[in-house]
Design a protein that fits this description.
The complex is a heterodimer of chains A (79) and B (388). Chain A has 79 residues and is an alpha+beta fold. In chain A, strands 2-1-5-3-4 form a five-stranded mixed beta sheet. In chain A, 23% of the residues lie in helices and 29% in strands. By secondary structure, chain B is an alpha/beta fold. In chain B, the strands form two sheets. In chain B, strands 3-2-1-4-5-6-7-8 form an eight-stranded mixed beta sheet, with helices on both faces. Chain B has a five-stranded parallel beta sheet with strand order 9-13-12-10-11. Classes of the chains: A alpha+beta (79), B alpha/beta (388). Chains A and B meet through helix 1 of A and strand 5, strand 7 and strand 8 of B.
């Protein structure tokens, strides 16, 4: 199934793009997806970020469905 | 609230609020009775202070330790050319008092720390966090939870911003999430660049600080639904917005099921900054700008390497050999191991990281970090150079 991934701030700058469509196995949850992204983009291992699934910030592993939006949100403190 | 009275001048000044049905004179009374502490008088502080004072918030506290610099004026529209070198709180007070003489302004020309935070904040009902670093962000968050005051939060990075309301107690006595529900721990030091290191588009804090001021006014008056429990994200580059729902984390160390933080801590230490400085001093040999000048004028061969980015080199340089930090390992053959090599960046932090890396990986023993970087050179050796 396909999900949409959004990358914010420092992550989008490191990757050079801010969103992409991503093909994942049907039973993949948010934790496994993040691990898969870290393998594809090793830069993610050096960054801290919060994860949201369909505009809800999640701490625990969350089930995904076709078309869900997952966002990776690093902290920033500028003022 | 009915004991809060307005003069004829005030009624005329605030009339555009008074004629909004759901706001009316009750909302204006609440604003006049309110005491808001604005922490940080930077890019966010500028619109915050201007709109909160214009709106008639009765008492505004302003905390900042800094003075106005040239590089502030691109976004900190509270200040003018004539303010350069003045304490920010002093210049800010003068400007907003001129805009609205009916309100009280208190200034705290000091660094906001665990030592003075409680004393300063205990006189206020709402905090607006416009600071620019992680230690103060966590300090302000923990303080707001421990003192039970809402924390209206905004933060910015290059083209992106976030706004929310943390630790807000609603009419039913339920308290919303705080910063540690979002990010329980700060990122490792040096991982996330600040505005000074990463840059910021000037209008961005104007937009985010204005949204933040609007949330402060809603928190005070109770008008509408404020952003408690929701994080608003704005990407000015692609014009994308999102509003994410934030839930309370049972593991929150401040007010989760098993709280481990019951008082303010040392936030520099907590964010790893105190420790990092020590490590750098031990491993990396440093020289000051005066020593570099002597070395360059002496007979001995010196290699000067500039590890900043090309766009920084274009702003100002001191004829160093440009090898950006991320390209250093590919150009290691260009770095002398025979004579003294001085490595510099903007302020001395990136160059210290580069030296540490080269020493660890290749065993260099002839590398020296220019402490204070090109900024210190522009301050003390060649004042004709621009600082950025």
């Amino acid at each position: 199934m396909k999900v949409n991934i959004l990358y914010f701030a420092q992550i989008s700058e490191k990757l050079g793009f801010s969103k992409e469509e991503f093909e994942i196995p049907d039973n993949m949850g948010s934790d496994a997806l993040v691990e898969k992204l870290k393998v594809k983009y090793p830069e993610l291992n050096e960054l801290e970020f919060a994860v949201s699934v369909n505009q809800i910030l999640v701490k625990a592993d969350t089930d995904l469905e076709e078309g869900f939006e997952i966002a990776l949100l690093p902290p920033f403190a500028g003022g | 609230m009915s004991d809060i009275k307005f003069s004829k001048e005030e009624l005329e000044r605030y009339s555009r609020h008074l004629i909004i049905p759901e706001f009316n004179i009750e909302g204006q009374r609440k604003l006049k009775a309110a005491r808001v502490l604005v922490i940080g008088t930077g890019g966010l502080g500028a619109p915050l202070l201007q709109y909160l004072s214009a709106a008639g918030v009765g008492t505004i506290g302003i905390v900042d330790f800094d003075v106005v610099e040239d590089s502030n004026l691109q976004r900190q529209v509270l200040f003018t050319q004539a303010d350069i070198g003045r304490p920010k709180v002093e210049a800010a007070k003068e400007r907003i008092e001129a805009q609205n003489p009916h309100i009280k302004i208190k200034t705290y020309n000091t660094t906001f720390t665990s030592e003075n935070a409680i004393e300063i904040t205990s006189n206020y009902d709402v905090i607006a966090d416009g600071t620019d670093n992680f230690p103060t962000r966590y300090l302000v968050n923990d303080l707001s939870v421990l003192l039970k005051v809402p924390n209206v939060y905004a933060s910015i990075f290059r083209f992106e911003g976030q706004v929310t309301v943390f630790n807000y107690e609603d009419a039913h006595g339920n308290t919303g999430p705080n910063y540690r529900d979002l990010f329980p721990e700060p990122p490792p030091p040096g991982l996330v660049p600040s505005c000074a290191e990463g840059g910021v588009i000037g209008v961005l804090p104007g937009i985010l600080g204005s949204l933040q001021a609007n949330e402060v006014i809603k928190v005070i008056t109770g008008v509408g639904d404020n952003l408690s429990g929701r994080l608003f994200l704005f990407d000015a580059l692609n014009f994308e917005t999102r509003t994410l729902k934030i839930e309370k984390d049972p593991d929150n160390p401040l007010n989760g099921k098993n709280p481990t933080i019951t008082e303010l801590i040392d936030y520099e230490q907590f964010c790893g900054l105190g420790i990092e400085k020590k490590v750098e001093r031990e491993d990396v040999k440093g020289i000051d700008v005066a020593t570099l000048k002597t070395w360059l004028e002496g007979a001995e061969d010196i290699q000067l390497i500039d590890v900043r980015e090309p766009y920084e080199y274009d702003i100002v340089n001191i004829n160093g050999q440009l090898i950006p930090q991320n390209d250093v390992l590919e150009h290691v053959d260009e770095i002398s191991s025979d004579y003294k090599v001085v490595v510099h960046c903007r302020s001395g932090k990136r160059s210290a990281d580069v030296i540490e890396l080269l020493q660890d990986k290749y065993g260099f023993t002839n590398l020296y970090n220019l402490e204070g970087g090109i900024l210190d050179w522009a301050d003390k050796i060649d004042t004709s150079l621009p600082k950025y």
